Amino acid sequence: MSSKIVTISREYGSGGKYIGELVAKKLGIPFYDKEIMEKIAEETGFVNEFIERLAEYAPSKSIFAYAFVGRNSLGESMEDYIQNVQRKIILDLAEKGPCVIVGRSADYILRDRADVLNVFIHGGEEEKKKRICSLRGVSEAEAVKLMRDIDKKRSVNYKYYTGQTWGNIKNYILSLNSTEIGVENCAEIIAQVYKL
Amino acid sequence: MSSKIVTISREYGSGGKYIGELVAKKLGIPFYDKEIMEKIAEETGFVNEFIERLAEYAPSKSIFAYAFVGRNSLGESMEDYIQNVQRKIILDLAEKGPCVIVGRSADYILRDRADVLNVFIHGGEEEKKKRICSLRGVSEAEAVKLMRDIDKKRSVNYKYYTGQTWGNIKNYILSLNSTEIGVENCAEIIAQVYKL
User: Fold this and answer.
1) What's the pLDDT band for B34 if we cut at 50, 70, 90?
2) Is B172 in the A-facing interface, judged by CB distances under 8 Å?
3) CA neighbours within 13 Å on the CB side: how many for A156?
4) Mean pLDDT across B128-154
5) Is the pLDDT of residue B190 over 90?
6) Would the CB atoms of B181 and A1 count as touching at under 8 Å?
7) Partner-chain contact B169 A175, CB within 8 Å
8) Where would you tag: which of A69, A123, A189, B139 has the fewest CB atoms within 10 A of its CB?
């Protein structure tokens, strides 16, 4: 299928981000997640652009003024603006060359390209809980709450920005249960399908 | 994950049955589908048992009498009875040893076993349509109708007998788009995960 881009959507705690990093390493291509994209947004001046636009209309020059305005000069909410910035960054990154992108509705944003391998990673509740406890240093009860809240947010955001259902089997070329298959093996299978 | 049984659920036209046959061949284990299970049902006397039970209560000794009775002596509808027979056959087959089972809600029927690799195969509409036209010798319009009707029936039956949603990503350890990945490669990946 001659893939160039891998997008990974994942349940919170499924190890999807780590799997993405492993895939990128195996394939020798860059890896991008939320944190990296936020950094790119700062570096490329997208954030400054937002603040400047805002400043034109906001009653004060402070970013906090935004809270009282609610919309920038294009009528975008803060969240819509961030989504739009991320969309532009993802399209730019995909244009630059092969890479692995985790989250950010990248599967939808890149839907017009024929060279995208869309992957979904999910897992068993117990194993996800354990992973979250260990990575975040939280109690089991907190881990359960985090899983529920974060996946709900991902699902709602995905629906809002794409009109599609998050985790719909048809949207992914490959879906893997990382608890049953193991994170290393998941990465191996993804790299293998990428090379087909 | 030390699998013994592979269950394959699939969209009509996705090549899931053929993939199942390839997996069974690769692993050197038996393959079972609807036709084979119907034969087993006949051989094991399940079907006779049904006719006999029916005969006790039906006004005539003919199977057609069933149409007027609607239920057998256990109050089962014909469809419930067939489902129950298939359930027993699938549990027996899984008990006997490693095998590949296509369809028949086998993933749900074997849910209490820890050694089952549940797989879902789906595909692109165009490729599925082409496969159906070529295999069944029907027109494109008929293929589209078959796809819609058969998958709807699978979905409704699955819901009725399992209470779950057919094609829910969480029910499968592995889900593959056979159009993008290719049927041979799908079989290879399934065999590989089976051996983990």
Assistant:
1) confident
2) yes
3) 7
4) 95
5) yes
6) yes
7) yes
8) B139
Amino acid present at B177:
N
CB contact under 8 A, B193 and A175: no
CA A143, A144, A149, A150 torsion-angle sign: positive
pLDDT class of B42 with cuts at 50, 70, 90: confident
Of residues A148 and B61, more confidence is placed in A148
Does the CB of A180 have a partner CB in chain B at under 8 Å? yes
With beta carbons under 8 A apart, name residues in chain B contacting A181. Answer: 1, 173-174, 193, 196
Type of residue numbered B18: Y
Over pLDDT 70: what percentage of chain B? 81
Tell whether B114 lies on the interface with A, counting CB pairs under 8 A: no
- The residue of chain A with its CA nearest to that of B2 is A180
Residue A65 has which token pair?
């003024």
Q: Which positions in chain B touch A169 (Cβ < 8 Å)?
A: 120, 122, 167-169, 172, 175
Which amino acid is present at A47?
V
Strand A99-102 and strand B5-10: the pairing is unpaired
Q: Which residues of A touch B191 (CB under 8 A)?
A: none
Higher pLDDT, B50 or B157: B157
Q: Which residue has the tokens 């993933």?
A: B107
Chain A residue with minimum CA distance to B11: A170
Contact A189 B193 (CB under 8 A): yes
Question: Which amino acid appears at position A174 of this protein?
Answer: L
Instruction: Please answer yes or no on whether A169 and B173 come within 8 Å at the CB atom.
Output: no
One-letter amino acid at B40 equals I
Q: What secondary structure, in 3-state letters, does chain B show?
A: CCCCEEEEEECCCCCHHHHHHHHHHHHCCCEECHHHHHHHHHHCCHHHHHHHHHHHHCCCCCHHHHHHHCCCCCCCCHHHHHHHHHHHHHHHHHHHCCEEEECCCHHHHCCCCCCEEEEEEECCHHHHHHHHHHHHCCCHHHHHHHHHHHHHHHHHHHHHHHCCCCCEHHHCCEEEEHHHHCHHHHHHHHHHHHCC
The SS3 of residue A39 is: helix
ipTM confidence score: 0.85
Q: For the full predicted model, state whether its pTM sits above 0.80.
A: yes
